[in-house]
Amino acid sequence: MHASGTFEVKLNPLLTHDGAEGSSLGRMSIDKQFRGDLDATSKGEMLSAGTSIKGSAGYVAIERVSGALHGKTGTFVLQHSGTMTRGAPELSITVVPDSGTGQLAGLSGRMMITIVNGNHSFDFDYTLAAVA
Q1: Residue of 41, 44, 49, 42 whose CA lies nearest to 17
Q2: What single DSSP character describes residue 102?
C-alpha cells in the first residue's frame, strides 16, 4: 500500500553527552504533524554529527508516530539513518519491526521524505500484515 502527504517539523536543540567546546555532535527533539493519508503526530530524538567538510554530515533518529494511517488508528516507530556526502543525501527511514499498535499492529514499511522550497512531503510504502 502507499500513503503520501505533507508534514511540518519542529527541531529543538537538546544537551549532548559530549558537551566539549567545538564538538561536532548534536542532539535535537523532533515534533511533527503529518497530514494526508497519514494524519498523525510524532515525537522523537535525533543525534547528528557534522564534519569539517561543507555538506558532509550524518544523523540517526527514532520517532514514535501516533494517529491514523488510511483511517486505521494506532502508533508505530520510525527509525532514520541519514548521511550527506558533500551535499549528496542518502536517507533510509523504516518502520521498526513489531512496533505497530492498535489497528496498525503488523505494520512494516519504508518512508521517503522530499523537501522542496522548505516544504516537507512524504511517500510511505507499507504493508499491514494480520497479527496472530
Answers
A1: 49
A2: G
In CATH, what number is assigned to the domain containing residue 119? 2.40.350.10
Model confidence pLDDT, tens digit, residues 106-127: 999 999 999 999 999 999 999 9
What's the structural domain count of the chain?
1
- Nearest Cα residue to 110 out of 97, 95, 99: 95
> CA-CA distances (angstroms) from residue 124 to 6, 53, 109, 127, 128?
11, 32, 7, 10, 12
Alpha carbons 121 and 62: distance in angstroms, whole number: 18
Q: Which domain holds residue 80?
A: 2-128
Closest CA to 76 of 52, 49, 108, 47: 108
The pLDDT tens digits for 37-86 are: 999 999 999 999 988 899 999 999 999 999 999 999 999 999 999 999 99
What does DSSP assign to residue 96?
P
